[in-house]
Amino acid sequence: MTEITPFYEKQVQCLSCKNSFSTTKIRSRFVKVSRHDGDFCPIYASTDINPLLYNIHVCPSCGFSFTEDFNRYMVPAVQKELEEKISLHWTKQDYGKIRSYKEAINTYKLGAYCALIKREKKITIAGLYLRTAWLYRYSAEEEEEQRFLRLAVHEYMESYSTGDFQGSSMTEVKLTYLIAELHRRLEQYEDAARYLSKVLEKQKASTEPKIIEMAKERWQEMRGAYKEARSS
């Protein structure tokens, strides 16, 4: 009897060059989440069974890197720009096998660069930056984590102000909370308090009690830290 492993290969077609290639994925039954950080970063029971490592599809032929969240339509002018900025400089390599954390981080950076060229929604680009920060958190590289948290919160704020998150899985309350939490992690406490206030203002009408509860917890943590700082 064949043993079922956590990993399987999925066939993907490149949105840019239309080349078909295989990439590794993880079967959901093997994924076990121990807990989540305040910015929704999942902490997995096993560091090896981490689906975030395999979120980005990297075309081995042209280098175009993307996720399921990318718009499938490719404007001809954008495709030409991708060829000029990525494909012409691409050395064929295969990210379709088991990935290390360093390799996964490289795929996210490629994905974010492609998303910027392709002019994907701010909410999509922000998600790529945030997940890159999480991978650096797993790797205990705090400086790089902070750098990508700053990039993420900037894009999330742009998404919030333009409303381009609408139609995605991100609700306004969850986005507002996430912006507040990223500001808090970056020690930008005034901005964090401003966005937490926006969340708490919506608590009576909200259908997301878990997010409201998390916002209250963050608010109490910030108040406690502020009092401690003043008394020291």
From TrEMBL:
The record ties this protein, via Pfam families, to: DUF2225
**Annotated InterPro entries:** DUF2225
By what name is this protein known? DUF2225 domain-containing protein
Q: Highest lineage ranks of the organism?
A: Bacteria, Bacillati, Bacillota, Bacilli, Bacillales
